[in-house]
Write a structure and sequence with these properties.
The chain has about 375 residues and is α+β, with helices and mostly antiparallel strands. The structure holds flavin-adenine dinucleotide (FAD). Flavin-adenine dinucleotide (FAD) binds next to strand 1, strand 3 and helix 12. Flavin-adenine dinucleotide binds next to strand 1, strand 3 and helix 12.
């Protein structure tokens, strides 16, 4: 793999750095509700107007068509400039709903939704998990009954991030009567303003309502909003999860290196040998994660299941870095809202996007070839 930047790459990097430093918002983004939506969509609209949105999306669909290497250079500069976290309410639309519509949607779906996403005019959420179907997603029970040219949806989703402020949801439901497990599902674009939808926000342990339960009571969704073929939703969901696990979190992974440097600065010139050793380990681990991130982003064709290796490494390292931050800050950590908030949030990293145990199962079975877990 060739990682030596060309002169053009360097010029791109400098242009990205200059634009980000001149334009990134400097205030702390609001954490929830309409204010967080307004902040995120205004930032996205600003990026779009300057030609810095949809960087890896094809030019035919309003993107910039950048190579994976250029995208990585952008993210390197993005996290160094301390631009707003990419894990905001535009995350789902930009990183896996939009890419899924590009890969599997109809031209009509692309024409309607993709410009809205890139211009910051629509926010999406994900409706996959249910109370009895998280790690075991194929156990989902929310149904969509075909009636004429509509699906009539009934059931419940949970942990749907930003459902309280989203316009659309990538909704995975069981549409073939009598089907079970991976068969008979459909991936549907659900307009969150449809009659019959109730959103009940859930506060997380940091006291912020990022996710919600969503209830569907005879919600009528046009069949034209099914992405991919009717009853073939599992394969579309795998497309979504491939984006979610391989490319969605690139910036977040690179950001950990910046956080370690912040910690080193925070610890001061004489941190004590135990803290110095701990910080050195964290710096080395963040560098290893950065290298894994570059490799995953650039490897073509993508190696299946690499995403699980990187996701697991990221999730556990994020928790160690935030734990170290709280130890270094001591009692001051309780009043430092930035680090204490991120510390509490970091607990979710080994659950969201596939729990750590599930990633370990994937690595064991699919990469190492160990015997399979018993399946339901
Ligand atoms: C911050 C956050 C945001 C989220 N956002 C969304 C969202 O926007 N949309 C959405 O649909 N979902 C979302 N989720 C849900 C997430 O996908 C699920 O929480 C996750 O898949 C785990 O499912 P579960 O919570 O039902 O736990 P369970 O599947 O019930 O698992 C409970 C525990 O058992 C372990 N376990 C389960 N099965 C096995 C096994 N076979 N082998 C070993 N251990 C096992 C798990 O690892 C876990 O530790 C979010 C979750 C979090 C934390």
């Amino acid at each position: 793999m060739e990682l030596t930047p060309t002169d053009e790459d360097e010029a791109f990097r400098i242009a990205a750095r200059d634009w980000l430093l001149a334009n990134r918002p400097t205030q702390t983004p609001p954490r929830e509700g309409q204010a967080s939506r307004e902040f995120a969509t205004a930032w996205l609209a600003k990026c779009h107007a300057a030609g810095w949105s949809g960087l890896a999306w094809p030019t035919d669909y309003g993107g910039q068509g950048l190579s994976p290497a250029r995208l990585m250079l952008w993210y390197e500069e993005y996290v160094r400039a301390r631009a707003p976290s990419t894990l905001d309410c535009s995350f789902v639309a930009l990183n896996h709903a939009g890419p899924t519509v590009i890969a599997r949607g109809t031209e009509a779906q692309k024409a309607f939704h993709l410009p809205r996403i890139l211009e910051g005019r629509s926010i999406w959420c994900q409706g996959f998990s249910e109370p009895g179907a998280g790690s075991d997603l194929a156990a989902l029970r929310t149904t969509g009954r075909v009636e004429g040219d509509e699906l009539v949806v009934n059931g419940q989703k949970i942990w749907s991030s930003y459902a309280d402020i989203a316009d659309y949801q990538e909704l995975l439901i069981r549409t073939e009567p009598g089907s079970s497990r991976h068969k008979g599902l459909s991936w549907v674009i659900c307009d969150m303003t449809l009659p019959g939808i109730t959103v009940r926000p859930i506060a997380n342990m940091a006291g912020v309502t990022h996710f919600a339960e969503v209830f569907y009571d005879d919600v009528r969704i046009p069949l034209s909003d099914v992405v991919g073929a009717l009853h073939d939703g599992w394969s579309v969901a795998m497309t979504t999860l491939a984006f979610e696990r391989r490319t969605a979190a690139l910036a977040l992974q690179l950001e950990l290196s910046v956080k370690v440097e912040d910690l080193i600065a925070m610890a001061g010139p004489a941190p004590g040998s135990a803290t110095a050793e701990r910080l050195a380990d964290l710096r080395a681990e963040a560098a290893a994660l950065r290298a894994m991130t570059w490799r995953t982003a650039l490897r073509e064709p993508a190696t299946p299941f690499d995403g699980s290796l990187v996701r697991l490494t990221f999730a556990e390292l994020a928790q160690r870095i935030h734990r170290a931050a709280m130890d270094i800050l001591g009692p001051a950590g309780l009043t430092d809202s930035h680090w204490s908030y991120d510390y509490l949030e970091s607990y979710s990293e080994t659950i969201a996007g596939g729990a750590a145990e599930i990633q370990r199962n994937i690595i064991a079975e699919r990469i190492l070839g160990l015997p399979r877990e018993p399946r339901p």
